[in-house]
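Researcher: Next sequence.
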Amino acid sequence: MSQPATTLAAGSVGTVETRHLDLPEPVRLDCGRELHPVRVAYETYGVLSPQRDNVILVCHALSGDAHAAGFAKAPPVESTRDGFGAEERDGAAGKGLGWWDGMIGPGKAFDTDRYFVVSTNLLGGCRGTTGPSSTDPATGRPYGADFPVITVADMVRTERAFLDALGIDRLAAVAGGSLGGMQALEWAVRYPDQVDAIIPIASTHALHPQGVAWNAIARDAIMRDPAWQGGSYHGTGSAPDAGMGLARMVGHITYLSAPGLEEKFGRRLQFADDVRYTITEPEFEVESYLRHQADSFVKRFDANTYLYTSRALTYFDLARQHGGGSLVRALEGVKARTLLIAFSSDWLYPPAASSEIAEALGGLGKPVEFQVIEAPYGHDCFLLEEARQTPIIKEFLAQGGPR
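Model: Next structure:
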């Protein structure tokens, strides 16, 4: 099996620092509540054109943040460079690299010589944007479980309000993988006159029941940890690290594929030439790998953010929200050109889901392109197969251009 290609040798946006913006108005949420104040963490790469018509919004997946490209001015303790084998791929530079660095920069898929790329930490996040770990102005303590339940639409409303504050009216493109792709789709449906193109990658119009089930197991793992304390663990000296670690193990396995696991680990033992007859310690390499993933994740991510973000992506359903149960009706108002990219081995967000979107858009006479990349790494392909996505995205963007 070939290793995933990388484009890290291409141009870099250099050293970047995450900035913050406080929205001037409350954000109205689907649950009926208003949220205020709302702070948004963001980074930008490239130069905004005088006409302000070269903006690409990059939306991240569940565990990402605003640092999408370049080297962080203050590298985190643990890298946000998710993806199968990311540590082997990135080496010592990994902790400071943005989570989609291979896709954003001079000459890359999202070419910063041409475009002004914006990346925000989504609403409900724990990396600078208002979320459950933020201070509730009513109490002076972290929101915890008192934070309102949010949806993908709420995330997009927040992004729209953020761009308004920057004086950006329309977008040349919205792009993202997984939950980021859901946001791109929501943009096209909710703000059809403000988006020229969308690029949902390894995403879906509604998570399949199996995906809903795996997310439920991950959330239960957190909430069944006594240290979760009903979500009010901040300031207690205890956090649901055990449950959060288990949630990460479950989630991470869903991002991989059977062939990928077989190639990387097989049934190789971790510490000895034969089994040691132990229940509590890992015997196999794959077991040690999952424990490492769990230990790293709990150091950089808030458990409540995981709960809220996971729930938001399971709620997402374009047909239910915008089409009265019909995906075709939900997409009738879309004006953006659409590029859908899926990966053959992704069983969590399978190519069939993207195909359904492509068929609905095509049947409506909307401009749509659908590409399936044959790759063995499961859902993580959108983070790993950067070099193979790059020419597809560059060609698609070249076909458009500012209106």
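Model: The CA atoms of residues 249 and 290 lie 6 Å apart. The two ends are 43 Å apart (CA to CA).
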